[in-house]
Amino acid sequence: MFPHFGPEAFVPALxxxxxxxxxxxxTHPYVAPPPATVxxxxxLEGGDDLLQPTRRSEVDLVNESTIVPARIMFPRxxxxxxxxxxxxxxxxxxxxxxxxxPGVPVEEKEEWDKRAGSGELIALERVVIVDRWAAHRHxxxxxxxxxxxHMAIQPSLVQDWFEPFRANALQSLGAPLIDxxxxxxxxxxxxxxxxxxxxxxxLESHTGLIKALKSISGRAEVHQSVLMxxxxxxxxxxxxxxTIVISPHCAEFIHTMWMPTTPFSTVMEIFDSGSFVRDNQLxxxxxxxxxxxxxxxxxxxxxxxxxxxxxxxxxxxxDDDIAIDPxxxxxxxxxxxxxxxxxxxxxxxxxxxxx
Length: 355
Prior knowledge:
Layout: H1 2-21, E1 42-46, E2 71-73, E3 78-81, E4 85-87, H2 92-100, E5 106-107, H3 109-116, E6 126-130, H4 132-135, H5 139-144, H6 149-152, H7 163-173, E7 186-190, H8 203-214, E8 221-225, H9 232-239, E9 244-248, E10 266-270, H10 279-287, E11 290-295, E12 298-300, H11 302-305, H12 310-313, H13 326-351
Parallel strand pairs: 2-5, 3-4, 7-8, 7-9, 9-10, 10-11
Antiparallel strand pairs: 1-2, 1-6, 11-12
Helix pairs in contact: 2-7, 8-13
């Protein structure tokens, strides 16, 4: 299903590919990687092989240093839905590949078996191997129980490395890029109370947060959104404009992959008292979004949650009446808006030669 395929396999694989194509300092963990062959469950291959020429995306790339995979391989998966295939029932896996990597072919088990049985030597210039079994044997993954844990924390020289793929998706959907988008910051509150989704806030916290966010509607474009009631195209377009995303812990944070990487991009994830998992923070780490862990009594410092026991952090249950002081959220949102306005004033002054 997409909540696993997107943030745990697809996005980390693209980040790994960017590390193979960006000049790295000698101190970086990934320097001068040797050629490899695909042996895992899925692979993203960049460059040429001896059987067919490389195909590039038909959409112009925003970042010329980013390489588009020549093909995507699923050596052990068929094109079916279910356990044997890579496609999910909702069709999101295939849809996301189509809009982010338009024109890039997908090869499944049948094509791989033909290659393997051809008796010919196949040379792959650059390969990223995605293998859940291997990933879960890395110490970082053991601690956080997510297969992308190690790749998420690897440094990348280009903070907006995902921007070309995000731009492909937006252009495929006819949505504006960040320069053509809203001129005010965009705050998105993922409302899970309206449809009684779990986990969610208690009624007092929910209504208090809505009132607090309305108070800054003159400075920001504020959305109270129920994603489960929206079409996938609408979700991408909304999240592609977001500056701040606020929600209780939930799988819907996967959609922050469409949020642009800016100095102000912030995710505020609210947990029940005593609970914490790093699932969504790892995605923010990969995409260079600020990710704040919020509890009833305030924002939890990173140096504290890094030392937490992940099993204990999951808590006994995900509560349906999470309590939060709206002022904690509002104060941080206002601080971000102040920083945004200050940066806008500096940019305007530089544009007119006042500094």
